[in-house]
Amino acid sequence: MSKIVVGMSGGVDSAVAALLLKQQGHEVIGLFMKNWEDDDEEDGACPAKQDFMDVLAVADKIGIEVEGVNFAREYRERVFSLFLQEYQAGRTPNPDVLGNSEIKFEAFLGHAMSLGADKIATGHYARVRERFGKFELLKAEDGTKDQSYFLYRLNQAQLSRSLFPLGDLYKRDVRKIAEQAGLPVFAKKDSTGICFIGERPFREFLERYLPKTPGPMQTPEGKRVGEHQGLAYYTIGQRHGLGIGGQGDPWFVAKKRMADNILIVVQGHDHPLLLRENLRATDLNWISGALPHPQWVYAAKTRYRQSDAPCSINAIDSSHCEIEFPAAQWAVTPGQSVVLYESEVCLGGGVIL
User: CA of 8: how far to CAs of 48, 120, 250, in Å?
Assistant: First the structure.
């Protein structure tokens, strides 16, 4: 059997991943990653101490060793600094995508290999398949929990050493397995949002790092309807927190004019400025190492919770691609990721321009 290091977060998913591997007879080591230096324990924004205690309790029940590793410096340098740069440039980044490729499957993988591990494992809902000498990333069996979108930046070397024990399970069954095994986290609430933001209002967090730069909110026709606090604090498609209302349809953020610090807002969910039939993406990663075929019909997601949308690639090279959708997509957001699929296989993707 193999020596497997499991990334354990303190939640039920990673706990069950470790349990299943232990039951299969593998030598299992739990590894708790602290990715953020918690500067405000008192408000519970990122309760790393409690999470680590939960990991220790689970490990004791399963009968495995646990190690705690601090990757906060790597996280700040590789993920958080880019997160701030992107917001300052008017884009909306996805730190979960970068955190997976740079920390969980880079720093964590390297550390696990130094411990003599054969493989690493996480509680992600996804699957890996080896086919024709290549490793493929597949969607999870539980479509409502599938996390392949967040893993599209992985490469062949990373996938070849990764296990996702929950890939064939449904969330309800994972909790049932945890309860039957007596794991103390079987009913623990799933974490939501980004660890370093926690439960705080997003704008309040950003104001710590990015200064307010107020400016006008305008309609596409140039009518001033309010004032924004800084373009970095808003995202395309945002409805709440605009501070404007009144009669008629709700308002949405449609565009950021960085050059003159103007936020363009429109009324109505299906306003033409919120709909796009094509996009360009950069910073591409293709899991197989080969470019997808132009003109073939694929499926794509431009945000995590979106249903797959049919699409085709009009142009592609090593640095950029152009994707067209037969049906217009809502609130395509610069800085977010577009991820392509061929049936259940995640091909990869890039960052939306």
Answer: 12, 11, 42
3-state helix, strand, coil in the chain (%, to 5): 30, 30, 40
Q: What is the CATH number of domain 214-269?
A: 2.30.30.280
| Confidence band of 159 (pLDDT split at 50, 70, 90) | very high
Best CA proximity match to 27, nearest among 6, 56, 7, 2: 2
Stretch(es) of the chain classified as CATH 2.30.30.280 = 214-269
* Beta carbons within 8 Å of 31's beta carbon, 6+ residues apart: 5, 6, 7, 8, 66, 67, 68, 69, 108, 111, 112
- Whether 349 has a pLDDT exceeding 80, the answer reads yes
CA distance 78 to 99: 8
State the Cα–Cα distance between residues 261 and 255, nearest whole angstrom: 11
Whether the pLDDT of residue 170 is over 80: the answer is yes
Which residues of the chain does CATH 2.40.30.10 include? 274-352
Longest pairwise C-alpha distance within the chain: 68
Q: What are the backbone angles phi and psi of residue 203, rounded to the nearest 5°?
A: -65, -40
CATH of domain 3-180: 3.40.50.620
Top-tier CATH class for 274-352: mainly beta
Nearest partner of 215 among 164, 177, 284, 263, judged by Cα: 263
Mean pLDDT on 200-222: 92
**Token code pair at residue 145:** 């929990």
- Which pairing describes strands 3-7 and 119-121: parallel, antiparallel, or unpaired? parallel
- Over the range 263-277, which residues count as b (16 or more CB within 10 Å of their CB) and which as e? bbbbbeeebebbbbe
Query: Closest by alpha carbon to 316, among 340, 335, 345, 343?
Result: 340
Please state the pTM of the whole predicted model.
Answer: 0.94
- Paired strand residues for 29: 5, 65
pLDDT value of residue 249: 94
Q: What angle do CA 103, 72, 135 make, to 5 degrees?
A: 5
Half-sphere exposure of 301 (CA within 13 A, CB side): 23
List of E strands, 21-132: 27-34, 65-70, 119-121, 126-131
Burial class of 254 by CB neighbour count within 10 A (0 to 12, 13 to 18, 19+): buried
